[in-house]
Amino acid sequence: MESPLVPRRSAAPEMGARWLILADDLTGAADCAIAFRRRGSAAAVMWGDAAPDDQLPILSYDADSRGLSAKAAAGRHAALLERLHSVDRRLFKKIDSTMRGQPAAESAATLAHLRTRYGQQAFGVLAPAFPATGRTTVNGRMRVGGRPLEEAEVWRRDHTYASADLGAMLATAGIRAGTITLPVVRGGRLADMLAEAAAGPDEIVVCDAETDDDLHRIAEAGLAATPSACFIGSAGLAHALAATGPKAAREPVRITPDGRGTLLVVGSLAEISRAGARRLVADGCVAHLPVSPETLLAREGQGSLATQLAEWLTAGQDVLVEIMLGGEPDMSIGPRLARALAEALAPTAGQIGALAATGGETAAALLTRFDIHGIQLADEIEPGVSLGLTLGRLSIPIATKAGAFGDADSLARIRDRLRRARIEGSLT
Fold first, then answer.
1. Which residues have CB under 8 Å from 378's CB, separation 6+?
2. Are 414 and 264 in contact (CB under 8 A)?
3. Which residues make beta-bridge pairs with 341?
4. Which one of 134, 252, 285, 422 is at 20 to 30 Å from 69 when CA atoms are compared?
5. pTM of the full predicted structure?
6. Which of 190, 181, 247, 183 shows the shortest CA–CA distance to 218?
7. 127: which strand partners?
8. Which residues fall within 8 angstroms of residue 332, CB to CB, at 6 or more apart?
9. Is the Cα dihedral 218, 44, 409, 341 positive or negative?
10. How far is CA 347 from CA 28, 254, 312, 366, in A?
11. First vs last C-alpha separation in the chain
12. Phi and psi for 228 in degrees, rounded to 5?
């Protein structure tokens, strides 16, 4: 009799599977789910107390756990998995490709959920690389732009672990992990290696990847070798998994054309987002409303800010609102700033023709304050930038972007795409 701990091999990758994507922030939830939408599956991002649509093939949920402690993040994931995960859905645990937040504790909670639900050994395939944005994995360690993650701006500004060694990271949550290096990923026996690993003592296997082809090999081998496994990674792996299924024509997402302006909000500290904001202002195509942390936290001048913003948007002017941070910003006030900005912009919600937000924390705060509970995904503007239609009190086009993704022209491309969407009335 075959041991229940040894996964059965399937002849081919799953086709047309239903997925639950559980992410630690909103932009990550969107840029993973959009991978499946681009293959023709209906997909949406939800958060808060929104009731998920069980008929939706691709359900992506923002756990909003990036800023929590390890214990709190694990607890939130356990509760959400109990509420959202069903036996007919494959499970994708989205983590940050630069290891921000609590990926180890959240992965441990995910494995614990699978053990409880299915009464068998839980196993995870971890491949956090996102080559399209310069994030790769070599010898079990993350790299950005070809250099060690520890040298990147995002690590210096915000990191949880002592190093970018993924095995050491997982060990902080008591997870036994092995590593599959690039020669094995590319060597032709990856499915066999994953099946053997799933039957062994390791709970998670870390897979190296430098290219999209590497991720496609991992996705196909993982689905073939480990049908009960969960996948852990970023949008790079999500795109690879989506590509294993059939491709169908996407149903168009249409709206009533809208002459109101687009609101672009930059709340991220990432330099690339700041450079994009400077480029937009220099182009002269947007009105610029800089706002200081002191103004937001003291709530002084917020009335005039909202009045000016509403006037421009109603007239069809695109507007860039930017939180101006100088020197070495205090990271601890980030959540307060995001909430204060959302409160300041709330009176203008009815005048917004389209919305763009950089940074998951900023986007989540704005949308929640605007009584929006989800996003119907439509398309991908560029890697890591999703386009969709808000669900809730407002129904407007929205683009979300992680702060460190893209280049100095990304915000200009986002502005142009949103302008076309609202004027032409089509998001696809």
1. 37, 250, 253, 387, 388, 389, 427, 428
2. yes
3. none
4. 134
5. 0.90
6. 190
7. 233
8. none
9. negative
10. 27, 26, 14, 12
11. 51
12. -100, 5
Q: Burial of 416 by CB count in 10 Å (0-12 exposed, 13-18 middle, 19+ buried)?
A: middle
Dist. CA 234–CA 144, nearest whole Å: 14
Structure tokens given for 216: 């496609």
Give pLDDT tens digits along the chain (428 positions). Answer: 222 333 333 334 444 689 999 999 999 999 999 999 999 999 999 999 888 888 899 999 999 999 899 999 999 999 999 999 998 899 999 999 999 999 999 999 999 999 888 766 789 999 999 999 999 999 999 999 999 999 998 898 888 999 999 999 999 999 999 999 999 999 999 999 999 999 888 999 999 999 999 999 999 999 988 777 899 999 999 999 999 998 988 888 999 999 999 999 987 767 778 788 889 888 888 999 888 877 777 765 567 788 899 999 999 999 999 887 765 555 566 778 888 889 889 999 999 999 998 877 888 889 999 999 999 999 999 988 999 999 999 999 999 987 678 788 889 999 999 999 999 999 98
Other beta carbons within 10 angstroms of residue 290's beta carbon come to 13
Single-letter amino acid code for the residue at 126 = L
Q: Which residue has the tokens 């607890």?
A: 75
Rounded-to-integer distance, Cα 71 and Cα 390, Å: 32
**Tokens 């969709």 sit at which residue?**
388
Q: Which tokens belong to 369?
A: 């304050």
